[in-house]
Task: structure prediction
Amino acid sequence: MIITFSGLQTFKIQFGDTVISVNPASKESVNFKQPARFGSDITLVSLAHPDFNGVDNNTKNGKTPFVIEGPGEYEIKDITVTGISSPANYEGRNFNTIYTMRLEQMNLCFLGALNSIDLSSDVFEKIGGIDVLFVPIAGGNVLDPADAYKLSIKLEAKFVIPCHYTKIEESCVSELLKESGEDEMDPIDKLTFKKKDLEGKNAEIKVLSPLK
Result:
């Protein structure tokens, strides 16, 4: 599996010939001036907001995505996706979808525009055991670094991938590292791993540089 990050919450996940896009920013986003464009087979959208719903940017190179935009159970190409409703407070939008996704015998979770760690027991149960957690860290409309790390520990994630920033130099990145006991960490352009690489890991932070 190969994961790249383009800024805010835009992720590209590749395994074999399959491409998954998560929360692509649209050209109407005022918080992200250069949205990434790439073709995807599946696109997940957590929030009906230009920072998250640039689905048009994922029709390229002969690919037209199957778009998931809310709660429910989905199965596409042997990939199981579960959308879980959660509250939000993002520039007037108060409805967020948390997604869990199972592929290559791994469970991934995308928290979207989550802004509180006070989740119901039902939501925690639906999220279940997590191998890789994608967590927003900017504060304000989404979780701050302290709460992001607390939730990562509570969910027992093996890898933690922070998001909702557009430059690696933003203070939220260093604040998250301090929460985890790290003074600094060299960011990576892409994360490549297999199931076996998660063995023995506990909330290990992987900081990805937004691709230009």
